[in-house]
Amino acid sequence: MKLITAVVKPHRLDEIKEALQAFGVHGLTVTEASGYGRQRGHTEVYRGAEYTVDLVPKIRIEVLAEDEDAEQLIDVVVKAARTGKIGDGKVWSVPVETAVRVRTGERGPDAL
Amino acid sequence: MAPAAITLAAEAPKLSSANTGFMLICSALVLLMTPGLAFFYGGMVRVKSTLNMLMMSFVSIGIVTILWVLYGFSLAFGTSNGFIGFNSDWLGMSNVGLTELWDGYTIPIFVFMVFQMMFAVITPALISGAIADRVKFSAWALFVALWLTIVYVPVAHWVWGADGWAYKLGVIDFAGGTAVHINAGAGALGVILVIGKRVGFKKDPMRPHSLPLVMLGAGLLWFGWFGFNAGSWLGNDDGVGALMFVNTQVATAAAMLAWLAYEKIRHGAFTTLGAASGAVAGLVAITPSGGAVSPLGAIAVGAIAGVACAAAVGLKFKFGYDDSLDVVGVHMVGGIIGSLLIGFFATGKGQSAATGVFYGDHSFTQLWKQFAGVGAVLGYSLVASAVLAFLLDKTLGMRVTEDEEVSGIDQAEHAETAYDFSGAGGGVVSSVSAALAGTSKKVDA
């Protein structure tokens, strides 16, 4: 199994969710996150005092997938998240040793 | 305050129901300014000290109200000498008839007393913006009581008392440019020079946590300020109160636009905080001057104050004093601008016949009088407030510990937090036993 993590622009969440549902993904986890990459932050001005805000709001989406689906699933996420502008984010995957469905105790791919 | 009684020589004034009703409404409007100020300031601090900022204003309502009835009014508005007043009948308002009129006017002493009470309430509250995030609540409460007594009361007497020295000299201060705004601004400067900066000043980001609250507060201040300014004529028999009302609106609009223009040019954006701050700067500057200038003069006063205050709020970073929410930059500077501009723009057709440099015989006489009033109030408040803060700091201690300040004064001093950010409603603090532990002084959240 693979854990696919995407840190992307918050307003792309709905598109990504719909694309994943269409692909057949039944569950995902979303958290609010903040960070920066090449986009860096922005500048705000309060009574003439300038603040550089480094961290930009992002969302982190986590999805578990079977090995053979992982690459295709990453493509689905990337396609739905892309706006073409700087700050679109990153998607990566890591191997997962095990997963358990809490209600039934099913293990491995059955738990997905 | 009105320098001349609105009466015919032979006829003693009678109680006017219209003026009395108007003044009671104005008193309520001025009271509303203090909660307005609380939100104006409260939105500007970080989340962790929102409640402390609100509470510093609210407790001023409590403390000053009681002290004003007990002795404040007597010492500020009684007659005795040029520096402090006294009237034993007014101590606790114990020997005042309900229909006994304020001397020379058409409203009862009770009405004048409560109207002035609201001014005394907001003036120390104004100082709280300079000392955000870092002052023990008990020390603040004591400071308010002592500052009212040794700074506000004498200064109000100088400027508005029938035998006050500045009043007799002819210093014009319609509604409190010196007694309220310069007084609070200079007092704030004195206090912060003693207690020092916030932890992380100029290093950590200290963005306002809620600009909508700031705008709400500015709106309430603007609304209440009509009572503050137009009410200060104590009646409407000769149109001067209406002139003041008009000028209050006009100068505030001009100052808001001027601040916005200044920061668009200097910093590249029309900011919300700039609009709110500009409006308050205009309200401050027209407070002393609105009864003396024409509406065109009010546009000038507002525009000059808007630009001057927008420039002045940057000085704290240059000189390194932590005037957290710019009480000095807006109230002291705005008060000075408004008070001195009377010396240029007074038409002689408003509250008094005195004219400024641009009118009448182009004399500088009124300008020098304004300088005297401004200088005396500024100097006295700065020094007396600094000494008071120093003594409190050496005895009670003015500041919370660094740890408490960094983790948030709301939790340390009030055992509360302003906002619940946890989706579930209770977060990790859901233990019932903590809520029922009435004996523990503070609930550790």
UniProtKB/TrEMBL annotation, chain A:
UniProt-listed GO biological process terms: regulation of nitrogen utilization
Native organism taxonomy: Bacteria, Bacillati, Actinomycetota, Actinomycetes, Kitasatosporales
Cellular component per GO, a single term: cytosol
Keywords noted in UniProt: Nucleotide-binding, Phosphoprotein, Transcription, Transcription regulation
GO terms, molecular function: ATP binding; enzyme regulator activity
Keyword Nucleotide-binding attached: yes
PROSITE patterns xref list: PII_GLNB_DOM, PII_GLNB_UMP
Protein encoded by which gene: glnB
One family name in Pfam for this protein: P-II
This protein's name: Nitrogen regulatory protein P-II
Annotated InterPro entries: N-reg_PII, N-reg_PII-like_a/b, N-reg_PII/ATP_PRibTrfase_C, N-reg_PII_urydylation_site
Positions of transmembrane segments: none
Record SUPFAM superfamilies: GlnB-like (SSF54913)
Chain positions with O-UMP-tyrosine modification: 51
Quaternary structure (record): Homotrimer.
Automatic annotation (TrEMBL), chain B:
Ammonium transporter AmtB-like domain boundaries: 22-419
TM segment ranges: 20-41, 53-73, 105-127, 139-160, 180-199, 211-228, 240-262, 269-286, 292-315, 327-347, 367-392
Entry annotated with the keyword ATP-binding: no
Entry membrane topology: Multi-pass membrane protein
Keywords: Ammonia transport, Membrane, Transmembrane, Transmembrane helix, Transport
Domain of life: Bacteria
Coiled coil: none
InterPro entries: Ammonium/urea_transptr, Ammonium_transpt, Ammonium_transpt_CS, NH4_transpt_AmtB-like_dom
Pfam family, any one: Ammonium_transp
Primary subcellular site in the record, as a coarse category: membrane
Cellular localization per UniProt: Cell membrane; Membrane
Alphabetical list of PANTHER family matching this protein: AMMONIUM TRANSPORTER MEP2 (PTHR43029)
Family statement: Belongs to the ammonia transporter channel (TC 1.A.11.2) family.
NCBIfam families: amt
Protein name per its UniProtKB record: Ammonium transporter
Organism: Streptomyces hyaluromycini
